[in-house]
Amino acid sequence: MDLEKMMKNTLKVVLLTSMLPLAASASQELTPWYIGAGLGVNNYEHIATDNGDDNPYAWDIFAGYMFNDYFGAEIGYRDLGSADWTAANIHNDADVRGATLGLVGVWPLGNRWSLSAEAGAMYYTLENDQRSSTAHGSYSSSDFAPYFGAGVGYNFTDNLKLQAKYRRYENLDETDFNTIEADSNYWGLELSYRFGSAAAAAPVAAAVVAATPVDSDNDGVYDDKDQCPATPATHKVDSVGCTIYENVKKQEDVGSIQFANDSAVVKKEYYKDIERLANYMNKNPEFTVEIAGHASNVGKPEYNMVLSDKRADAVAKILVEKYGISQSRVTSNGYGITKPLVAGDTKEAHAANRRIEAIVTTTEKQPVLK
Asked: What is the mean pLDDT of the chain?
């Protein structure tokens, strides 16, 4: 017998089986994974045995995964024992072992009992050791063989299950020299362990008559959790019954500065206006300001657009450099003749339109309404 080969195959399956629990969930519920082992007897058909030195004892190890309560898949390694016979003065000692893969169906019954059925394939190796009075040798052959089976099981616990099994193997043949054609029948017991634990049943609590919860201000939060009683009915509230607020931006025009014709120079008389704007900005550090430059409708529009930019930049520069307002809070834009303050082509209209306007963006906290 090729003992080394058998040990290698056995080791592969054992290692694979030992790794399966690592994939099991650590939760407090039964996982789909299980492992087990079995022991029984196996009888080969179509082999003329002399029943003298047969080793009918068979064993297997396996691991499985249940897709649901009724259906799963299973892998394993099985040794079907050996059969001895003598033909033409040659003593034969044949055994079959190999890896299996199959599907399993389970039908739960009452009182922890269940029925099962299975079908799959075995990749087997048949080894035959031959002896005669003049020679001794062995040979082996590997192939696939189908199997099917049935069983009845009993769960000692949610995890531990014992099953009585019957399996039928077909075409366990020696395929290289066609010297052996065999089927077999197996009867045995298997013990399996499913990982995890069943979820504990919820305890039966005594009936408690609770007082009807009250929501005095009708905001959707009961009084025992309401930290802001008497909120207005139109306000949206948070989980503890307090009004939810949002910041709303508003624009406020805080005045304008006039310029001479065709000039971007800020007159000294307007510095106090710029200082008042700076003080307002300092008192409200969250506010920002746009310095908007404008021009009168005299000359070319393109030139007036550039001139209005220069006027806006001049005031913004004073606001930042002289009065210390952060550059990130100040923007400047020129609008040329596109936004006249006074319509018409009069001297008064032109004077009024040569200006800058300071538009402050404020943030106001307002309640969110339903």
From this structure: 84
Give 221's DSSP letter. S
Nearest to 13 by CA among 59, 68, 70: 59
Tokens of 360: 């402050």
Rg (CA), the chain: 46
For 74-122, write each residue's pLDDT tens digit. 999 999 988 888 877 888 888 899 999 999 999 999 889 999 999 999 9
Handedness of CA 349, 350, 352, 358 (dihedral sign): positive
Q: Specify the pairing of strand 330-334 against strand 288-293.
A: parallel
| Residue 95: φ, ψ to 5° | -140, 160
**Where would I find the H helices in the chain?**
3-19, 271-283, 301-321, 347-353
CA 43 – CA 83 distance, rounded (Å): 8
Q: What angle do CA 120, 42, 146 make, to 5 degrees?
A: 20
DSSP letter string, 300-329: -HHHHHHHHHHHHHHHHHHHHHTT---GGG
Tens of pLDDT, residue by residue over 114-152, are 999 999 999 999 888 888 888 888 888 899 999 999 999
